[in-house]
Amino acid sequence: MSADPRPQPATLTLGGKSWTVRPLTLRQVEVLEPLVARGSGESPFAYGLAVVSAALVRDHEADIAGLRDLEATSADLAEATRAVLILAGYLPGADSGEARAAQGAASTSTPSTGGSAPSPDGPSTPSEI
C-alpha cells in the first residue's frame, strides 16, 4: 500500500499566534486560483494576507479580521504563505526526510527561479532604478 500523497496539516504562525490548517478543500483552492493566476498587480503583503486568509476561512474564520493587527514580520507572512501554497499543491511539499535533504542541498546551491510555481512572497514586479 502506498503512502497517502495528500499533504499533512500545517501550522501557520504570525505574530505569536498559531493555527493548525488542514489540507485545503477544493473550495479553498478555488479561491486561491485567481490569486495565483493573476500574478502582477498585487503587493506581496496583500497577496500573503489573501493566501493566508483563504487557508484560515474553514476552521479559523473569526481570526481573519485581526490578521493585519498582528505583530508579525514580512518573513513570517512569507513562510505562512509558502505553507499554504504547499497545502494547495502550488509548491512542492517535503516530508521530513526530503526536507532535511533539501536543507543540505540549499546550503550548497541556489534555487532555480525558472518554472511556473508561485512565489510565497507574491507576484514579482520589476524594480525601478
Strand content: 5-15%
Q: Tally the beta strands.
A: 2
What's the main sheet like? 2 strands, antiparallel
Name the strands of the widest sheet in spatial order: 1-2
| Helical amount | 40-55%
* Rg on CA atoms, Å: 15 Å
Which residue ranges are poorly predicted, with pLDDT under 50 across at least 5 consecutive positions? 96-115
* Overall pLDDT confidence: 79
Basic shape: globular
Distance between the termini: 56 Å
How many helical elements?
5
Q: What order do the helices and strands follow?
A: EEHHHHH
Structural class: mainly alpha
Concise structural overview:
The protein is mainly alpha-helical and 129 residues long. 43% of the residues lie in helices and 8% in strands. The protein has five helices and two strands; from the N terminus they run E-E-H-H-H-H-H.
Describe the protein's architecture and organization.
- The protein is mostly helical and 129 residues long.
- It is 43% helix and 8% strand.
- The chain contains 5 helices and 2 strands.
- A two-stranded antiparallel ribbon has the order 1-2.
- A hairpin with a 2-residue loop joins strand 1 and strand 2 (17-21).
- Helix 1 runs antiparallel to helix 2 and helix 2 crosses helix 4 (74-87).
- The longest helix is centred in the middle third of the chain and has 14 residues, at 74-87.
- Residues 96-115 have low confidence and may be disordered.
